[in-house]
Amino acid sequence: MAALISRVGKKLRRIIQRPGSVELTRYEALLPAVEKLEPELEKLSDEELTERAGKLRETLKDTAFGDDQLIEVCALGREAARRALGERAFDVQILGTMGLLTKHVVQMETGEGKTLAGALAAAGYAIRGKRVHVVTVNDYLARRDAEWMGPVYALLGVSVGWVEPSHSREERREAYAKDVTYGAVAEIGFDVLRDRLVTKVDDLVQPDPEVAIVDEADSVLVDEARVPLVMAGSIDRSDADEEVAKIVRRLRLNLHYETDSEGRNAWLTDAGSSVVAKSLGIEVDDLFNEQASDRLAAVNVALHAHALLTRDVDYLVRDGKVQLINAARGRVAELQRWPDGLQAAVEAKEQVTATDRGEILDSITVQALLARYPEVAGMTGTAVAVAEQLREFYELEVAVIPPNTPNIREDLEDRIFASPSQKLRAIEEEIRTVHETGRPILVGTQDVAESEELAEKLAKVDLECVVLNARNDAEEAAIIAEAGKKGAVTVSTQMAGRGTDIRLGGTDGADRDEVVELGGLHVIGTARYPSSRLDGQLRGRSGRQGDPGSAIFFASLNDELVLSNAPDVPEGIAADEETGEITDPAALRQINHAQRVAEGVDLEIHRNTWRYTRLIERQRRDLLVHRDKVLRTAYAAEVLEKAHPEKFGELKEKLDDQDKLEQMCREVLLFHIDQLWSDHLAYLTDVRESIHLRALARETPLDEFHRAAIPEFHKIIGEADSRAAKTLEEAELTDEGIDLGDAGVRRANTTWTYLVHDNPFDSDFEQTIKKVRSMIKRK
């Protein structure tokens, strides 16, 4: 009877608390069989264990996992981990492994062993004959996990490698040749872009994609899904107008310019237009005529940089460079930048050296990058909150893995205040009071500026703390690892993707028992995040593996979350005259409502962006099929011979080598294909920037975008053939064949990769978003 009640209870919890999660009964039923194999496998030598995994590989090759194979793979993985790491995988880790092997996103709480579960699943796919990429959020975790799990893979006869920015092309090729390759999502994406521009098959570094296991899946698949990774070729230095930057720097909010309530748009007032025109030495009317459009565009971009982007919140200035801050992770977004004009405007605003400007040679969104893999699985601590997006955009279901030990963390009710200053005073008092007990404290802030402001205030009352944010991200793992020490106070921006558990008592666990007795780690959130998922990630740092702990969030009705998403606070909400604290339940409802609005808007931006980029990705995929044909066959030589048989014959005589002839023709045609694709991307950017004018004319922007983009794309292959033929026709032939440089076939001598921090189609889309926001607010 008790067993029946337990099973019913589990099902009810899944239905009520965990929407979108898959049933685990099938996998739970296999756990006894996995355990039953342990005594048998323990008797094997290391060589015999590896041999047994090899036999399973022969049996499984290119077939799907049945129950028997899942049992064998998991039992072998558990034994390999026990020998290599001294860790016997818990049943919940084996459940996670099974969930990954059956192409789900598994939700496992912080500290429950996602890294090992992911490694066992990667080994399982490799034993099945698949090449596996374990996609991480940063380079540090890619190398750490590959090295850490290396001995486990070795016992299973699976090779492992990783890619990082410092690797050469040969090192990358070697890493991708392994059964399992770890890499940051950006690094793997940049290698895809580089491979798309090679002119020799031997220069390719990546094999065809087969399986991706995504760590911090919600962050990668949702938060960064629409972020474009870009490869650019050098042209010259950015051409920000320094004169305009100086003019805009003198403008004042509400006098010379205004912004919308969401902080997304800024525009000049009549007074501002007058000041700008006078400073430029022109009449106000001339500022808005067609001849001055470039200058007006420069003013608008400079105004955006001045009014809407804030130092230490949106970006840092470090080592003489502007570095963007990843809002989802609260730290420096390596290699990320805004589109060229805005990047240059921010650099001019901060008076730092301008970075190189280039033409975009190719790009791919993170979502499209992951869509290349026939099989995708993922793991994270907070998947249920984005189950709808994972299903809609990736056709992935969430499997919620129960904790190995029940979570006993105490989640305290939010404390709400009338103003941010009153809230900050209460946070200081909370830290002081808890610190006096000796409990370790982790404070999660919204941005770098808030972290440093709080640290300064704590220092004034002799409360030492360690600040973990975008300024010292290289040291973050060591800092976080010690956040559980007795008396520690750690102030941090976003916690997602830190990759390090907080162990009570610190890494050495010297005072663990005392910290447990005191109540464990106390987590404080200085404000609610725009997503409940981010709130959960911060809370989840406390109470790992059954440890005691607590978490509390502080909020204000004047926090950015409320002001941007639900500013119409109901009347009659009273605050304590002395402290400013609000106990009226309506205040919490308002904050929860603001968070739901923010989540709804973000989802709609994702949907709308994908509607546009999906066409671009489909066009790129179709063109790459043709490009690969050119790269691997004699197609280019056939095209040129057909177009100009006599000139082709002369070229053939000069070279007297069929391979050299085909390669030279290939280089010419591939150059024109790549140049035309780059031109197409630039054209689509122009369409994107002007499409809001079509929206004003009551035309559907998406339909108009397709109407403009599709005919232009269909011209590319024919135009490339024509241009290649013209190159041959006009080229001066030498003993070496065609002097490609003299013939105008010049590829960029410098290329670089970066991520674009952009909201595509922002200008027209803002109107849609405002409608969505107002609709959600009425609900």
From TrEMBL:
Its main location: membrane. Residues 95-253 form the Helicase ATP-binding domain. Keywords: ATP-binding, Cell membrane, Cytoplasm, Membrane, Nucleotide-binding, Protein transport, Translocase, Translocation, Transport. Residues 419-586 form the Helicase C-terminal domain. It catalyses: ATP + H2O + cellular proteinSide 1 = ADP + phosphate + cellular proteinSide 2. It is found in: Cell membrane; Cytoplasm; Membrane. It comes from the Bacteria. ATP binds at residues 93, 111-115, 501. Residues 9-586 form the SecA family profile domain. It is a peripheral membrane protein. Its EC number is 7.4.2.8. The keyword Aminoacyl-tRNA synthetase does not apply. Belongs to the SecA family. Monomer and homodimer. Part of the essential Sec protein translocation apparatus which comprises SecA, SecYEG and auxiliary proteins SecDF. Other proteins may also be involved. NCBIfam families: SecA2_Mycobac. Part of the Sec protein translocase complex. Interacts with the SecYEG preprotein conducting channel. Has a central role in coupling the hydrolysis of ATP to the transfer of proteins into and across the cell membrane, serving as an ATP-driven molecular motor driving the stepwise translocation of polypeptide chains across the membrane. HAMAP family: SecA (MF_01382). This is Protein translocase subunit SecA. The lineage of its organism: Bacteria, Bacillati, Actinomycetota, Actinomycetes, Pseudonocardiales. The gene is secA.
